[in-house]
Amino acid sequence: MSSQTVERVTVPPTGACQGCAMVLISRHALDTLGRNSVVTIPASCGAWSGAMLIDRGPTQFPSAAAAASGVAAGLRAAGHKETNVVVIAGDGGTYDIGLQALSGAAERGERIIYICQNNQAYMNTGIQRSGATPRWGWTTTTPVGSVIKGKTVWPKIMPEIMEAHHVPLVATASIHNIPDYKRKIKLAYELTTKQGKGLSYIEVLNTCPTGWRYSPEKMVTMARLAVETGFWPVYEVVEGKFKLNIKPKELKPLKEFYQMQGRLRHLTDEQISETEKLIHSRWERLLERDQRGY
Amino acid sequence: MVEEIIDFITGNDAVAYAVKMARVKVVAAYPITPQSPVTEKIAEYINNGEMDTEFIPIEGEHSCLAAMRGAGVCGVRVFTATCGPGLMYAHENLECVHRDRTPLVIAVPNRSYSSLFADYTDSMPESTTGFIQVFVESPQEALDTTLQAFRVAEDHRVLMPFMVLYDGYVTSHTGATVRLPSQEDVDKFLPPFKPYAVRVDPSRSEFIQWDAPGVPIQEMEHEQAMENAREVIKIANEEYAKIFGRRYGDGLLETYRVEDAEAVLVTMASMTGTARQVIDMLREKGEKIGLIRLRTFRPFPIKEFQALQEKYSFKAMGVCERDVTHGCRYGEVYGDIKASLYNLDNRPKMINFILGLGGADIRIPTLTTACEKVHYTAKTGKIEKESWFGAEIGEVETRLAAF
Question: Do A74 and B25 touch (CB under 8 A)?
Fold first, then answer.
């Protein structure tokens, strides 16, 4: 990034599943940031990102943001003042087991670019439910049984938790709009690495054919539908300024999107409309914020 | 040597002073009693501009050790301190430090998991994590050992992390006269950190694909490193003595009045001071009894124990320690000494004393009773009972501080 040349940092092949969006998420982040970067990847599908031409910081599952804090301090102490310190973690390593470390790092104003590739379950360990799994969604630990059908509670809204930390950048992104995602990565470089204003948090919906139960060639279609239904709003909060980046004139009905996924196909119409109600009320809130600008 | 300033400070302050003198580059820490004063002092040094150090006031010990790993792989000198439940909470990342071969130094004022006070139930479960573990007796030794710790851990023959262990409250919070080495002399003893390899270095022009051997080979290498540490600890102890005039036995073990002793007591850390008094009293009565202080617990001084036994042919040995492995009815140290001496033809009869759990004071009457039992076994060859809990030999459940 400091040198503006476009140079591949990630090297194919990867060990990811066919049609895995995580590959695009890590590739575009790291290729945009360039060689003057260090990446920390906790246990996650990200571990299958393939070879990278940059050094990796070591970490255990719960401590990615803490380990990256150490790397950032170690690099400064070693004289590398403007190196990107990047975390690429899954939703498990962000919403659940890694939340404490992330919250601590954000509050301390650590100069870390934290990317959450959210595929809404523990896909790497075999599709177990996480704090990001949609309500009523099937996973191997929330099976659709004869009595209890799927996950019984709503997921967290992680970007809003991150906003409450007063970090310079909180943004969501979608892999169907790579230019928007890359712009946010560059913004993170500017705010976090260059200006040292604190942690940047970017969360991308990682569409997952294996865990969501749909056909791999629909990766981009699924990502687009998630945004167009309001299931995955794409927005940014830059130093307190709010902007809704993708604003469909009207949200598409959720049913079609849900029906395309094996994990959500069993939902009743009532359950879908209850989910839709929640999505729409959040969407209204985001539109208001967009108008207000904060 | 520049004349040392003599001050009256606690063990915790002595450690913090050593960390300042060692010019540590990154410190992360989380508060826990009785460790907190170490990091408070370091924060004071940093905020007063006396230390040029990155300080990470982190949100928990698990994260703390993760941050220390992260900083360590950048090739800079790193330090942290924790104890008791904090040390246990950090276990997962603690286990990883030696796999990075990061020469991290941790100060641990030992704290029980069942009270705020000293016993070794916090550090003993970490004895398999690849840390060098040295138990020190006094604030002075805590200072000296912290300086030696960096030198030993960073030695390219070793590159294993180092735990400086001292008794919570008894040593961590009790004032003592401590000689403070000058920066000039410390710099002579402890040169700037030269990493063997820098794992994370964005300025390299070419990317290095690190190729580590598989786990079985790695573990063999780490065992060799610990083997080397035995010698390097001894050398550091001697080199330190050359500059500062203070040495602690051979660095691994310290003996006291063992010549012609038939019975010998093994102690650790602060209980040793009391034990010396007991030995003196019994010697005056004509009893042939001596003392060995176990300073270095990991790597375990196997050969050194064997050599002492070969040399003095103790008939009985009593091992005092502040920890117990439930279901075995003995402590970690006892098991290790017994294993070390088992193959000798003239091995001693052995008795274990599990004392001071939860921070109970280890007093003269208790240690006198222990010595008498060892002495009885030395005289008669009989063992009344192989292991004794403090309460069984008159230990009173009292603590240094009344809370």
Answer: yes
